[in-house]
């Protein structure tokens, strides 16, 4: 059986399920009519093409979006304390055309002023910004999570789990790959707590990179002209709010 035949069968199966899902969600929430097929497909894939589960997940997302992002987007004035840490950057694209974000974990500290809610708004701001940079036909992004200098003062379990929940529940099938670089040994104690909360689809996309193989690993997915300078490439880091 040819790969093309199998692929067309999978595509047809997905298209049928998208139609079923659309009928189901539009009946429950008429605002679903404004949502395109690729969005529904991402929710379907996140639930292994189970129409009922995917529809429930999608309707929960719509409700969340209406309450958490009532204006349609998060403004800079809603995340001042998170922005002041200057920890999130976005520049370049990988070989598949996926936008690349870089996060410097040692610059993150628990938000004492705006609390967990401001951090969650910042996560949504970041994800919306990255998604807006995707070229036509591309639905995923790549993240380089840099933990150089990370220590217990940066540890923020509630924030990590909050970000993970938002990514998995409301932005399914968006993460293409997460490279974790310069991870210190003490980070693994936190990682062991977070790991069970990561769904299997997401786990497959996470790669811990050894320092000595950092540039060669990035080069497998990203051209040198698109790799940040701090990893031996050619692009300066650009703060996410300036992109």
UniProtKB/TrEMBL annotation:
Which parts of the sequence belong to the CRAL-TRIO domain? 76-239
Could you tell me which Pfam families the record lists for this protein?
Answer: CRAL_TRIO, CRAL_TRIO_N
Q: Which Gene3D superfamilies match?
A: CRAL-TRIO lipid binding domain (3.40.525.10)
Q: Which CDD domains does the entry link to?
A: SEC14 (cd00170)
The protein in question is named CRAL-TRIO domain-containing protein
Q: What is the lineage of its organism?
A: Eukaryota, Viridiplantae, Streptophyta, Embryophyta, Tracheophyta
């Amino acid at each position: 059986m040819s790969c093309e035949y199998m692929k067309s069968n999978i595509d047809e199966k997905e298209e049928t399920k998208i139609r079923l899902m659309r009928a189901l969600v539009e009946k429950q929430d008429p605002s679903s009519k404004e949502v395109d097929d690729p969005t529904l497909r991402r929710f379907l894939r996140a639930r292994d093409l189970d129409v009922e589960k995917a529809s429930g997940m999608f309707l929960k997302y719509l409700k969340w979006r209406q309450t958490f992002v009532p204006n349609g987007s998060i403004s800079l004035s809603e995340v001042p304390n998170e922005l002041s840490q200057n920890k999130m950057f976005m520049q370049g694209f990988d070989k598949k055309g996926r936008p690349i974000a870089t996060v410097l974990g040692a610059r993150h500290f628990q938000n004492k002023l705006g609390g967990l809610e401001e951090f969650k708004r910042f996560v949504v701001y970041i994800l919306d910004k990255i998604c807006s940079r995707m070229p036509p036909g591309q639905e995923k992004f790549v993240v380089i999570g840099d933990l150089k200098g990370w220590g217990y003062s940066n540890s923020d379990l509630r924030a990590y789990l909050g970000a993970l929940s938002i990514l998995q529940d409301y932005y399914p099938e968006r993460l293409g790959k997460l490279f974790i670089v310069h991870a210190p040994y003490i980070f693994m104690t936190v990682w062991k707590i977070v790991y069970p909360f990561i769904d299997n689809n997401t786990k497959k996309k996470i790669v811990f990179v050894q320092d000595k193989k950092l540039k060669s690993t990035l080069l497998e997915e990203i051209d040198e002209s698109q790799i940040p300078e701090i990893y031996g490439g050619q692009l300066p880091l650009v703060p996410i709010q300036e992109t």
